Structures
1.
Amino acid sequence: MNAMADVKVMKTAAETALAQTYAQAHASLPGGATIAQQRAAAFDLFAKEGLPHRRVEDWKYTDLRALMRDAKPLAGPPDAAAKTRAKAAGQMLGDIGARRLVFVDGAFVPELSDTTALEAGLSIGSLSAALADNDATLAAHLGKLDPASDVAVALNTALMGDGAVIRVAAGSTIERPLHLLFVASEKPAASFVRSLVVVEQGARAMLIESYEGPAGSDYQVNAALELFVGDQAHVDHVKIIGEGSDALHVSTLAAAVGAKARFNAFTFTAGGAVVRNQLFLKFDGEGTVANIRGATLIKGRQHADTTLLATHIARNCQSREVFKSVLDGEAHGVFQGRIVVRPGAQKTDAKMMTRALLLSERAEADNKPELEIFADDVQCGHGATAGALDHELKFYLMARGIPEADAEALLIQAFLGEAIEGVEHAGLREALMDQVAAWLKARAAV
């Protein structure tokens, strides 16, 4: 017997089911021959690597192979009942005057969406329609920002069904926020949504992604957004993950930012049983300023992972990364952040900080900030902390007559405020702080 013979790794039930899903569905998925080739190449990567596991460094703390016990069937078209329930979705944002594009179980629902009277320079469509029509914008951009070896994104490419395709023409200013609202029904199904947003030179837009679904349904979401930010453009991106308590959510933002642009990104995570939020950012042009922030509130046995790769390619760019997490019960929070400064990116100014606040002795935080610097004239730094509430500050508040629960709530709100205050839209910033207050009220009631 050859002792060096290849050892075949057994496929999990989820991996086997995903392979069967692709085999059964790929011929009916939208898109022509070129898209079919992209799908096949992406699925080949998954077939070779399998689901990410703890021996893959970038997935060390989120062993998807173990956490994803099964793979749900692809979600079918939403029925009338699901659409009716979706009418009430998105209330967590309040009335911020956004233009809503609604997706139910991953499928675009025009009758629930606001697609009339578009501002000058704004075009909106669905991915499935763009794939069917061989849309030129889609052909020029789709898949160009995919991280080459990421299996989660590869699965999204292989099985993508619908999503948004948005273009903001050069020099246009879109006053109303664009809200992509993804709603899951009660079906235990899987949706693979892919969106493409192109903001051209000198344009300005705010994009909101939000995800929500019912408690008690173990549905699965794999979402990806490719975002192209042109030179001198100003883009704000906010993602709100409020999935149901049993949901599995994996989402990816892949963005390329041009010269002298301003880019702000914020992620708010409070829902889902298992959440993995990925950001792959490239600063391609000189003189760009970027602020990347996030806030996580989890409890019970929730698991939330934020993984960030910010690559500085051009010189004289500034980036700030600030992520805060609050963990209660047996929750597990993960932050992995890596700033890469390429050889030509002199004068880069990049600083990253992650802080975790542990409200329980059983909560766990894994923070892993990293720097990879290949230029010699830069200012870069990173830091990470994890700890309990400051007892002296808490005592100070209680000594002035503030009840213990209220004192803790004030300290937690202040802790998260540093991250949330980076959201430029005042109405949205207020809505997010309201969500924090609601989470704290529910905690105090237990």
2.
Amino acid sequence: MNMAARKLTYACIAFSSILLAGVRPLFAQDEQPPNASKPKPAGTTYPVPLVVGGQQDEDNNNKLLPDTTPLTGIQAPTLGSPGLQHSYWMPGIQWTGSIQSNSYNQTQSSSWLMNNYFVGNVSLLKAWSRSQLAINYSGGGFITTDSNQGNGYYQNLALSQSFQWNRWQLQFLDQFSYLPQSSFGFGGGSGLATPGTGGPLGPVIPGMGNSTVPNQSIYASVGPRYSNASAVQITYLTSPRGSVTLSGSYGLLNFIDPGNVDSNTISGSIGYNYALNRQDTIGAFYRFSAYHYPGQPEAHGDHSFNLAYGRKVTGRMALQLYAGPDFTTSRITATNADSLNYGVNVGANMQYAFRNSGITLNYSHGISGGSGVLTGSSGDQVNSSVTHQLTRIWSGQLNVGYSHNTPIGLAAQTNTQSYNTWTVGGGVSRPLGRNASLGITYTADFTNYGTPTCAGTACIANQTFHYISINFQWHARPLVLP
């Protein structure tokens, strides 16, 4: 592992240690004696959302607070977040044992192997009168029987800090991961893909979109890698129905092993949101993204102009749709000239909840950094999941994902092939008491790169990976923050 990776790993471990040491281990309100002083509020003091297009159903029975993400922002909408009576933090532990059919290095001689992940989790929600901090973090390592891969580390973090001043809302967002393989399909339904303790008490931090988080959907890039996306977002309320949202972000995808393509992405956007009623919102936004590759002269600048529509029903549905024209300028070193490519930018995010089931669907079409294989790619990515309560204690899930990547401007790249990747899985889980859960999952990943050979570190054009995992999670009761 190189020095940069060690620094990032040690920083995450130090961060979690300080977090665990800096709070008082007090039980939540239901564990306080009757004469305890009135607790400090937490979720109920979250700043009033700026856009009213998602605040309907105030008297709903699910006790969820409405989602406050602006339609033209960089976060995907959610069904809402639980209203809590305390600021709190919650530690936990997790073990995941995974049997897989092939090594991460994708060599033909790979055989079945075993990975054991030992992870510490922590979730934190701290609220003040005009701000709120939410953190979900998981960190640890894995022991493997694969002598080529070797043992390694695992880190996953999601962070959101929000401030509210009258008409203004300011947000600082960050998503970081250090994984032994691609994040696309990683962990299946085991919980490794999601940081924090999870469950109904875990803070809801809306994920940033595919245009902000580096793409990793090509399996031809192999080996440990760290990915980070940091963003600042500002929303200003112009009227009771309208608001303006501005955002800026920086993302990176760096690999430990040689032979992969590191990338950096700088993005900025500006959009206008208008609430038609308490459920429906329309908007328009412009986004610019610049893609650079350390040590390589190629670069891309992507411009997109989009119209957007959103609908939110707290606890029932969250929908975001956008589409618009897109053009990309590319710096071509082979001809010492620039190229211009036209296309479309499309995105859809949906969550829908039934009485005993739930559906999630995410789709995007546009430009990305190239997933560590290409110096820029144009492609499609879709992820979907279905959950259902099978019995009183058992629940089931199905997950399907697909990605298609092609180079941006074939004249600008020596690698001109397309990359198709599928991931399919499912599993069952059940609670073990109040604070623990057990799950069993199966995942299959498929690659089809269209040719007998392919470009990429230890790449095999057509291959199937099978994963069978057992996952155990435990978390403490919420501990009150002062």
